[in-house]
Amino acid sequence: MDLKFTPDQEAFRAQVRAFIEAELPADIRARSRLGKRMQKDDMTRWQKILDRHGWGAVMWPQRFGGSGWDVVQQHIFEEERADIGAPPQNAFSLRMLGPVLMTFANAAQQEYFLPRIIAGEDWWCQGYSEPGSGSDLASLRTSAVRQGDHYLVNGQKTWNTLGQYADWIFCLVRTSSEGRPQQGISFLLIDMKSPGITVRPITMLDGEHEINEIWFDNVRVPLQNLVGEENKGWTYAKFLLTHERTNNAGIGFCKRALKKLKEIAAEQLSNGRPLLDDPRFRDRIAQVELELMALEITNLRVLSAVANESRTLGPEVSVLKIKGSEIQQMLAELQMQALGPDALPYLREGLGMDWVPDPLLARHYPPYAPPLSGQYFNLRKTTIYAGSTEIQKNIISQQILGL
Amino acid sequence: MDFNYSNEQMALQETLQRFIARDYGFEQRRELARSTLGFSAGAWAQYASLGLLSLPFPEEYGGLGGNGVDIMLVMELAGRGLLLEPYLSSVVMGGGLIRAAAAEPLKRSMLPRIGAGELKLALACYEAGGRYDLSHVACTAVYRGGGWRLSGEKTVVLDAPSADYLLVSARSSGEVGDSNGISLFLVAREAPGVSLSAYPTQSGGRAADVGLEDVALDANALIGVVDGGLSPVEWAVDQGIAGLCAEAVGIIAALNEATLTYLKTRKQFGVPIGKFQALQHRMADMLIAAEQARSMAVIAAVAADAEDARERRRAISGAKAYIGQAARLVGQQAVQLHGAMGVVDELIVSHYFKRLTMIDLSLGNTDFHLERFSNAP
Fold it and tell me: For a 10 Å CB count at each end of chain B, is N or C smaller?
């Protein structure tokens, strides 16, 4: 047992860091540092840069065009990426759909879709939740009916993150109403340019457009866009969710956020002294830092056990998801709290790079302030999405504890 | 980065597990806790023959050259078995301090005897009014006529009643609270002027307040350098804390197992109570706490071997503060989920709970270590 990185791993870290420092476009880095709004273009540009270096899919095996890195290398990459401020890659494409295609899709689908994901050509979004099917996902009703060489899809999906940018959507659809609800679900790949698709924005509590509703009105989807077998989609869906939840630990993101929190607390004054010297506030930082220290090791323990035993991830990712999402929320909350009264102004234009605050405001209002309250509000989603904390505890109870 | 135990470590784990299952049942343990000695002399001899008592010492002193992870492994099982023997006091902290700070001849004479189970030590490093502050030392050490004279009182010295020697921190210069001016002494428990007020602890062990009245010591009773005793004591206490973290993790795991079994077997309203979601989610919280606590114990075990004192202290304090809270959650909820069965003496649950609670209060509680962690950014 050893928590030190090997010299090889340290060299790898230096290599990753040097690459990101050199290749990350300055404008993206500046936006990320100040928590400004990220655009699709930022993520796509970065994806293409990574691809040119052969790092377009660091979590995929080499035979599918990935980097074939082990879990520690992936961890190091994530840490460095987040620390420097490179955008996250599209998790829907790379972390969710990718593993499903690699495991369950046919060769033609793999050969067509996987390279396009790595090259940043296709933007994927997720079509899981419906207005009547949230935690009870298997009750979903969007239907796909076979008609000759295609399915006719009708229904509505919701909470589609960044769906406004999507070229494609992977969708859970109902292909049978017989047996248990889980037995009639299929996994379909749908071109967002198909006639009959309507995307409507949903404004979130932070005032931003991140999620959408998507309507399907007699959308024709070729039969060859079915992944795996018809009515076996629930198996693939759960497999995907397990992968989604691993990354929900968000260690790299949290480490960066903790650093930023300490910087803010060192700069903000309380009674003329740095807030960081206030024992009450400092204890709150210490508590979340301890959670994060523990989660980093728990995360690596889980991933290395999975690698050692050559198995796929199981219900233990629910532990990572619960803790990771709570830590993200705590950090965002403390960043906002650190601002004190400066957390109140709602300045949407402050999320853009070229915003200049009014001189009177600028005297006390720091440049990092505009996104912080919104981020706190926005990140309430983390304990809700990808299976709420309560669903994760159900999974732990049933699948780990056997209750 | 490697989370696997070596083959030797797994063999050690298995041996100790077997010993606990065969010779250290709950009923035996309850009797031992009520006995005069408070632990099993036979078990102590067994540990010696298994090599546990010389585990952390270098090979040149008859030891096995074990590291923090080896101690973690032993202490985790000590937790699971609720072992009462003074392993932490005598081997991890006492022996550790001799190894780290004593002069060569003393190491040569003492470490092999500790390893053979012939000699037991206790660390007397706290005083009244100082809570967990190791620099709060009022007990005096005066150099006179080629030897030392010690006077003062040390409080709640764990495992003092069975110890052959006490390792005593005393003030050779400066004021109470000064980091400098503390020296360490090896004092025979039976030496003239040493008095013990002994008592059992809440979790079944033994401890004592120790009075020192003009205790005369040879010059070579001094461990390490004059006035420079604080940092070795801090080191030894940190070793002890890492051990306590592992012990707590062993108990947490055992408590979770016991509670889960109870949820599956105890029926109310016609079903096992584990069918109720309110209880399921509580149990899920306990599982998460156990996993996170285990990660922290690993951090502490690895940090125990760290060269850099600041790095070591920060990690170990962080682990103690985190595990204190995780242990409180698991301990209290295990009792709660056992209902009235959780508050009786005849079930192991209450004994685990009491031990977890006392672990938090030993060698610095959650608040103390949270402050130490948060002051060392």
Answer: C
